[in-house]
Amino acid sequence: MKKTLLLFGFLTLGTFCVQAQTFRGLDKSPLEMAYYPDDFAHTRKTNDEKALARVLYSRPPKNGREVFGKLVPYGKVWRTGANENTEIKLYQDATIGGKPVKAGTYSLFTIPGENEWTIILNNELDYWGAFRHKPESDVIRVTAPVKKATEPIENFSIQFANAGSGTNNAVMRMGWDQTVVEVPVTFK
Fold first, then answer.
1. Which residues contact 96 (CB under 8 A, 6 or more apart)?
2. How far apart (Å, rounded) are the C-alpha atoms in residues 67 and 9?
3. Which residues contact 155 (CB under 8 A, 6 or more apart)?
4. Do 160 and 53 contact (CB within 8 A), yes or no?
5. Is 1 strand, coil or helix?
6. Which phi and psi angles does 31 have, rounded to 5°?
7. d(C-alpha 13, C-alpha 168), whole Å
8. Which residues contact 69 (CB under 8 A, 6 or more apart)?
9. Can you say whether the dihedral through the CA atoms of 3, 4, 9, 14 is positive or negative?
10. Which of 68, 187, 86, 188 is nearest to 133 (CA)?
């Protein structure tokens, strides 16, 4: 009886150890990070160099689907990516689309439209999608025109680009499929 219990214990422990070492497969919409300055994560040479902004988001693929107006409906709040809501961290005070925003971390939502998008920064953090979006927690809402991409963008992408001399003026670009939206960002 003791041997049977001991054998059962070893088998149970062995099964637990094998399962504890397995990993689930890769996410189909991988988590991505975009910094401003755009190359900050890869080219900083000293500890004195500082990022001005960082966006954390998931990159869903087009996979032959019709994206805007279909997969992502027009006129509805979107998480701006996939999975958890997208977050933007401003390391210093900024002006986004002409509206002032204090340094801090915010959820980044959008309301896609055929000709323009509404970009929303919200105080609510750490939740899945846009299902719990509370308009009363919005910090700013700005609009930006839709542009046609020069070529299809397979995975949703967010990037920053310099928009003038120095690093104080930037553009945050969001693009997927045939759509690109650019939002001006100025750092103080």
1. 119, 121, 140, 142, 172, 183, 184, 185
2. 52
3. 59, 60, 61, 62, 176
4. yes
5. coil
6. -75, 135
7. 57
8. 114
9. positive
10. 86
In 3D space, the residue among 25, 20, 22, 36 whose CA is nearest the CA of residue 162 turns out to be 36
Amino acid present at 32: E
Q: What is the DSSP string of 59-111?
A: --B-TT--TBTTTB-TTS-B-SSSSBPEEEEESS-EEETTEEE-SEEEEEEEE
Token match 């910094």: residue?
A: 35
Give domain limits for the chain: 27-187
> Taking all residues of the chain, what is their mean pLDDT, rounded to a whole number?
86
Q: pLDDT at residue 61 above 70?
A: yes
Q: pTM for the full model?
A: 0.81
Measured CA to CA, the distance from residue 120 to residue 141 in angstroms comes to 5
Confidence of residue 150 (pLDDT cuts 50, 70, 90): very high
